[in-house]
Write a structure and sequence with these properties.
The chain is an alpha/beta fold. The chain has a domain of 123 residues: Diaminopimelate Epimerase, Chain A, domain 1. The protein contains 5 helices and 8 strands, in the order βαβαβαββαββαβ. The chain has a 6-stranded mixed beta sheet. Strands 1-8 form a two-stranded parallel ribbon. The longest helix has 17 residues. The protein is elongated.
């Protein structure tokens, strides 16, 4: 086979890609920093969430979920708080997940809907970050994330199958031919 100046590469193997996690986040608002996304500040995150709500005409009361923010790459060098997310909407519960998958942030409505308050104890293996007065600031670490509303809980098997197909297309577009989950 003559390729001239071109190269032929074998398919790539992804040995640690969390395929199902990619599928589950396909419907989430992309809050990734450059070069993947455009979230360079908390204001960018708020704008992206607002835009998603407006463009998709998401009804009030419907959970809005974002994924991919990275506090270490935000201008503010901190996690957004419930107060920051309240700027995106106070009529939609909002939950955003950190790029690591080990933290999540809920706005005030998401916290209220989940019954998370100053009296909520830290779950085993998790931390509910708090303000000086003991009220949650919205940031949930590790197992505390499970206290927040979760869009995955409402996925039908049919919708999850469709999201997995979309994830396969993403993998294939990057030349990934072998995955594990």
């Amino acid at each position: 086979m003559e390729l001239g100046e071109q190269a032929l590469l074998p398919g790539f193997i992804d040995a640690h890609g969390h395929f199902s996690a990619l599928a589950r986040t396909a419907d989430y608002v992309d809050l990734s920093p450059p070069p993947v996304g455009g979230a360079e500040s908390i204001a960018d995150i708020v704008r992206a969430l607002r835009l998603a709500i407006e463009q998709s005409s998401i009804p009030a009361g419907t959970l809005v979920t974002g994924f991919g923010y990275d506090d270490s790459l935000l201008e503010e060098r901190r996690h957004p708080t419930r107060f920051d997310l309240d700027e995106a909407s106070t009529s939609h519960p909002i939950v955003i997940r950190h790029v690591s998958g080990h933290l999540a942030v809920g706005n005030s409505l998401a916290l209220a809907d989940a019954g998370i308050s100053a009296e909520t104890p830290d779950p085993a293996g998790g931390i509910v970050r708090r303000l000086e007065n003991g009220a949650p600031d919205g940031v949930m670490e590790e197992t505390a994330m499970t206290l927040l509303p979760d869009a995955v809980a409402n996925l039908t098997p049919e919708r999850f199958a469709e999201l997995r197909r979309q994830a396969l297309e993403i993998y294939a577009a990057y030349g990934i031919t072998t995955i594990q989950d």
